[in-house]
Amino acid sequence: MLKIAKVKRGSLAKDLGLEVGDEILSFDNFACEDEFDYLYYAETDAFTMTVRDHRTGEETTIEVEKTDGEDLGLEFEKNTALRTCHNRCVFCFVDQMPKGMRESLYIKDDDYAMSFTCGNFVTLTNVSDEQLERIIRLRLSPLYISVHTMNTALREKLMRNRFAGKIVSQIKTLAEHGIEMHCQAVVVPHENDGDELAYTARQLFQYYPVVRDLACVPTGITKYRDGLHPIPDVDKAYSESLLDLVDRLNAEFGVPFLLPADEYFVKAERKVKDAAFYGDFSQIENGVGLTRKFLDDAYAALDDVKAGFALKKPKRALLVCGVSAAKTTKKLVEDCKKKIGGLQAELLPVKNAFFGETVTCTGLLTGEDIALAVEEYRKKDGEFDELVLAGNTMKEFEDVFLCGMTLAGLKTRLDTEHIRVNRDGGRGFVEILAGAATKRR
User: In this predicted structure, what is the pLDDT of residue 437?
Assistant: First the structure.
């Protein structure tokens, strides 16, 4: 149900007699759940709409005919309801978080609407046959799906949900109706890896290119796993074996269908693949291809710096990053120092004391861990002119770290205003170091 918040003047909705407070119950006799129903039917030329009058409670079915592209002219009250997770996955990251963090961090969302609009991964275990039909009818494509395994019994075991095995028929149905899917497998060592991963990849590849790809991502393991299912961390040998398996399967398929997370390349001490491997970087938010995109963008920006360029005033920049990123960006920093005269730049790899040292990505660093690392650096190496942080250490639209510390709080803690936040990837990284020496293409 959608409750009307605004009716535009001179609009078709106004001509139809719709008013603020009226409720849209259905389109073409299909129950109206959220704004996706409206957006879909608003693009069609003719449909019926059942509306409940806000004054009388009377329900009326209206026949709507409109010209192509004509706006109905409605806005609605926001519906904040979120479909949540029905699983108890043995590898769930939320179950491994400490108490006392922001409430939103403990929400286990599993909402196919968020998958379509934001690229969130969903399991589909909370999706009924009717909702699956709705996804198809409204053309909610692409979807991002946490498959994990196509072995139904194993999926039920890993997700601790007796309905998890439905994924096989769900994938088949969505593929038959042309709903594009990006899939992922959170790889649990000795469970859904090896032959099981190969089986899953082959089953999903039957539906290629509707099923676009399958990301292989490591299990996130924090120090807060007391009482939880034991999961070993992965080492160099394991990562090498997984990457070798991925290469063999992709050679079998003839396309880069399996996309391993960057973390495996870091632990295996191998270079990430070239940009062509990652295509349109559709799984970059999943830690797949992020390193390649960052490096390519950074070197493109560095190429824009003219030979012989020097900063007007020499500066010493301290570059905060996670342990993994330090390994992949070390050469880039050295190349920046060679190209940009007067630049002293040094990486500061921050160990994650908050979640545990098994968590090595930059995006899960807290303000407290960053502050402690910078304070320790000052004791040993002295002052810096500029502290550079990665934007993904904070909320997307708010300068707040995972631990709740704000950027302003960090500046106060470190007694400095000279903190730069890079929210523009590799190009932004170089632009901060080189100032106005780079230019946008």
Answer: 57
The strand pair at 2-7 and 74-76 is best described as antiparallel
Q: How far apart are CA 274 and CA 265, in angstroms?
A: 12
As a whole number of angstroms, the distance between CA 278 and CA 74 comes to 40
The helix-helix angle for 290-303 and 323-339 (nearest 10°) equals 10
The answer to whether 245 and 264 have CB atoms below 8 angstroms apart is no
Sign of the CA dihedral 413, 432, 362, 401? positive
Sequence-ordered list of residues with C-beta below 8 angstroms from that of 304, at least 6 positions apart, any chain: 437, 438, 439, 441
| Cα angle: 260, vertex 217, 290; to 5 degrees | 60
pLDDT tens digits along 334-370: 999 999 999 999 999 999 999 999 999 999 999 999 9
Confirm if 169 and 130 have CB atoms less than 8 A apart.
no
Q: Kindly report the backbone phi and psi dihedral angles of residue 72, in degrees, each rounded to the nearest multiple of 5, phi listed first.
A: -70, -35
| CA distances to 334, 344, 388 from 382, in Å | 20, 13, 16
Cα angle at 218 between 217 and 223, to 5 degrees? 145
Evaluate whether 200 touches 245 at the Cβ level (below 8 Å): no
The pTM assigned to this predicted structure is: 0.89
For the stretch 227-253, pLDDT in tens is 888 898 899 999 999 999 999 999 999
What percent of the chain is predicted at pLDDT more than 70? Answer: 98
Dump the DSSP string for 160-210.
Answer: T-TTGGGHHHHHHHHHHTT--EEEEEEEPTTTSSHHHHHHHHHHHHTTTTT
The pLDDT score that the predictor gives to residue 81 is: 72
Greater confidence, 66 or 237? Answer: 237
In whole angstroms, how far apart are CA 336 and each of 131, 278, 346, 434? 52, 25, 11, 8
Is the backbone of residue 140 left (phi > 0), alpha (psi -120 to 50) or beta? Answer: beta
Q: Pick from 435, 345, 421: which is nearest to 389 by CA?
A: 421
